[in-house]
Amino acid sequence: MSGAGAVGSVGRGIAHLATRVLLWLLRGFVLLPYPVVRATGELAGSAAYRLAAPRRRVARVNLQLCMPELSDAERERLVREHFRHYARSFFDRFILWHGSPDRIRRLVRVENGELLDGLAQREPLIVLAPHFLGMDAGGLRLALDHRMATMYANQSNPVLNEAMRRGRMRFNDPVLLTRQDGIRGAVRLLRERVPFMLLPDMDLGPRDAVFVPFFGVPAATVTVLPRLAKMTGARVLPAVTRMTRDGYVVTLHPPWAGYPGEDTEAATRQMNAFIEARVREMPAQYLWTHKRFKTRPPGVPPVYRRD
Fold first, then answer.
1. Dihedral of CA 8/13/18/20: which sign?
2. What is the DSSP letter of 30?
3. Every domain of the chain and the residues it spans
4. What is the pLDDT of residues 26-39, one digit of tens each?
5. CA 224 to CA 49: how far, in whole Å?
6. Is residue 4 predicted with pLDDT exceeding 80?
7. Beta-carbon neighbour count of residue 22 at 10 Å?
8. CA-to-CA distance for 52 and 213, rounded, in angstroms?
9. What is the pLDDT of residues 244-294, one digit of tens each?
10. Is the peptide bond before 226 cis (omega within 30 degrees of 0)?
């Protein structure tokens, strides 16, 4: 091994050890009353707002594109609130990953749970879970009562990646696929009547995507939801998780009738319109720090400056 390689290996080892120690310390949050966890998260979010300049700029650009009707001061208030919610959701995960089932049920309430109860195991079912900051809480809460499957992105830090994977696999023997697995595994699970939680509202590049409006801005949007629904005959049941002062509420919306139809682009546009409507209900809780408009239509200049 070269000198540079050895130094890099040592550096990674130290980083992984530091991650293990930090995760062990943060596990202690499961012992604290929830108001203390919430206050800690919000305080950390206020600090992150000041320190994480690149992510703050991304959120500002997204909100300027999506909500130009707001004043600069109103958008900046949403950015601050977003960071507080974001950090709080991070600290809450240690309750989700290590708390008892009873505590998780108290922390995360389910609205319209009978919709999932009535459809699960009876027919193929896609649970559409947009990227609101409470989606991990909502997903784990639903997994308390049903065997679920989902797809996730591997983290660059393997220690953190394994902690997240273990936390998400606590209940009812769920199935976690990576994006690298493609949709073949999802098709198989849906045909086996395992409800599949899908999070398709991120910019993953131009592959398998169409440009459809999101807040009136052309957004590269993967067509996996209508394609999966058409391939498997699955119903689409939206699940949107909202953060509250006392925890979370995951609301199940009625399954979409006649979806996806014959027009894949129109079906993808329908998905974006539904998510946009939910964002307007709780604008600070959507994942604004994601570069949702990184992929631009041909000839359209980029909207994010280089960090």
1. positive
2. G
3. 3-285
4. 999 999 999 999 99
5. 33
6. no
7. 12
8. 28
9. 999 999 999 999 999 999 999 999 999 999 999 999 999 999 999 999 999
10. no
CA distance 229 to 127: 11
In whole angstroms, give the CA distance from residue 233 to residue 83: 39
With tokens 């389910």, the residue in question is 110
- Record the pTM: 0.92
Distance, CA of 121 to CA of 147 (rounded, Å): 9
Beta strands 125-128 and 196-198, pairing class: parallel
Instruction: For residue 184, count CB atoms less than 10 angstroms from its CB and return exposed for 0-12, middle for 13-18, buried for 19 or more.
Output: exposed
Task: Name the residue type at position 222.
Answer: V
- What is the rounded distance in angstroms from the CA atom of residue 116 to the CA atom of residue 147? 11
From CA 306, how far away is CA 25, in angstroms rounded?
A: 35
Helix axes 72-98, 158-168, angle to 10 degrees: 70
Residue 94 token pair: 């240690």
Helix axes 158-168, 135-143, angle to 10 degrees: 50
The amino acid at residue 274 is F
Residue 162 pLDDT class (50, 70, 90 cuts)? confident
pLDDT at 17 over 50: yes
Distance between CA atoms of residues 38 and 208, nearest Å = 39
- pLDDT value for 307: 53
Answer positive or negative: Cα dihedral of 249, 271, 199, 55: negative
Q: How many residues does the chain have?
A: 307
Retrieve residue 177's tokens. 């696929």
> How far is 195 from 145, CA to CA, in rounded Å?
12
Average pLDDT over residues 126-137: 97
Report CA dihedral (222, 228, 270, 221) to the nearest 10 degrees: 0
Contacts of 25 (CB under 8 A, 6+ apart): none
